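Posting for a labmate who doesn't have an account.
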Amino acid sequence: MPLDPQCRAVIDEMAAVAVDWTTLDPAVARSGFAAQPVTRKPEVARVEERRIPGPAGPIPLRIYWPATGGRRPGLVYYHGGGFVLCSLDTHDDSCRTLCMQADCVVVSVDYRLAPEHPFPAGPEDCYAATLWTAENAAELGIDARRIAIGGDSAGGCFAAVVAQMARDRGAPPLCFQLMIYPVTDCSFDTPSYKENAEGYFLSTSMMQWFWKHYLAKPEDAANPYASPLRAENLEGLPPALVITAEYDPLRDEGEAYAERLRAAGNDVQLSRYPGMIHGFFGMGAQIEKARDAVREATAALRGAFTR
């Protein structure tokens, strides 16, 4: 279908202050994201900052609790940003919304960013934070039998990778994985990369810039913990929801990962949002279908938590 008019309005607004991220130093690009205006934040019962041990030093976390009492399910969330950008703050609204609508404790992970910390720093931090959440579930008020993982874009990649790591390393048990327009392969030759190369917020050149900073050496692209689509074995992974957007360079690789998960015998729901662009999930204030996607994601989480 045509590009959604609300997405077109967002793109036009972005174009008015357009910046070519591929010409910037990552630190400068990060400061631009940090300077974005703060919207009204959804209310949660409690928010707490933590620093936990990680493979190369402390990992900052932000933990959100819903209003309901008792031991709740947990969602460990990994923010997007192309492995290079974004933070706990850029995804604060999404985590608050997921906390309240899915009625779960959300643990948001401030993993190390590239290029200062290239692959595999990010996914190893995310795995360590997930394992810590499971091991400290009682103290956090989380039911350790009901822990899900999720993320958007690069964070969606980390959700796929952490699910594989948890299976390969024997812990922790996970009940669900939520992947929102995930990066799944270091390859730029799919139809969606060609169809949506420019003009829809995320571009092919931006993804090439992200991958250049993320990988310390080109051969890392073949590692399934960098490109989860290249894993030989996808059996025995948690049930999943994969959300994609029609006008997104990452559309095809996200859908290919969902199909491979299904072919390996996993329970997978794939949902493509027509007329949408990359990043739309976090644009609920401007885009109605973003609110629909959040409702779908939280309904899937609630369903997984009651199995």
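Reply:
Got it, the structure tokens are right above this. The chain has one domain: 5-305.
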